[in-house]
Amino acid sequence: MELFCYQAECGDAIRIRYIGNDQRPHNIFLDSGYERTFRHVLQYEINSLIQAGEFIDLWIVSHIHDDHIGGIIKYIKLINDDEFEDITQRWLYNPPRRYVQRTQNCEDVSSAKSIRQGDILYNYLFQNNKLPESDIISNSIHDLFGLKITIISPTLQTINELRKKYSDGKPLEKNEDESISKAKSILNFDYHLPLESFNLSDFEEDDSLENRNSISAIFEYENTKILWLADAHPSVIYESLLKMGYSIFYPFGCDFVIVSHHASKGNNSSDLYNIIKCNNYIISSDGENKHFLPSKEALSRIIRNRYRDLKSTYNLYFTYNTANLKEIFLSERENIYDKWNFKTIYSDKKYIQIKL
Question: pTM value?
């Protein structure tokens, strides 16, 4: 089993590859970054799969923001232009609005002015009979050649709230700067602040309804577990883990956590990390974006969690190797790495590749 986390600027583009219980290789893609992410890396990865005779067995689309769905839209465009082969067998995606009339040409889906990426993906999946049969909601379980996928976000309630928001045919939100989100309340990088200066109990959750509707999941194969948080809200993940029986006394253990919303302070709470036991955290961000992510405050909630075992080393994996990312811990007056027993790993390649 291998985990690939691709460089997607401040976005998500991930692949899980494993040998299934049928002894064949299988691939799961999680989001796709921006349209330029497809040109930068995903088209080469997918072409390699085609040449190897492999498929994308499942593509999970967490939500409609450009940094997660943009690459898929480029993939669809190339397929429609007969420039690319569609090798995706199955999709998990929650359409952000109710489409009253399901016609083959889908002309009524939305007016020209309101067409956005979420609509384009819906059209494509509908026309090719690849829409999921039901909404993808927390506590549902899927099996894919022996790999267990447990959905832990969103809830049916939040899906209905999103569809109510877009019930009048209004344009779908494409970029987060069209929303008012507490995740963006940070006005600059907070890397100059000491790691120990953050009040871990002071937390305001991201208020983006689109982020709250992110599909998030646990991937479990044999003895390996990966927790992918997309841009999900920590309160939703926390409640799902509690319902599964986890707590501060019985934490959820996994091998890797792909940190929510590129390590924004509004999507990573101490309460959530109180009930997670993991030594490896992946941050999908280049540190050079207008949202000033990753947030050091969010990383502090992971590193300084009151229930972590300081005898166990924490590893922070960054999908890029930039000057900004290396500045996160430069302001410390002491060797913070030894005190809090953690390491930082930066990627010089187009992806992080981890063999599990």
Answer: 0.93
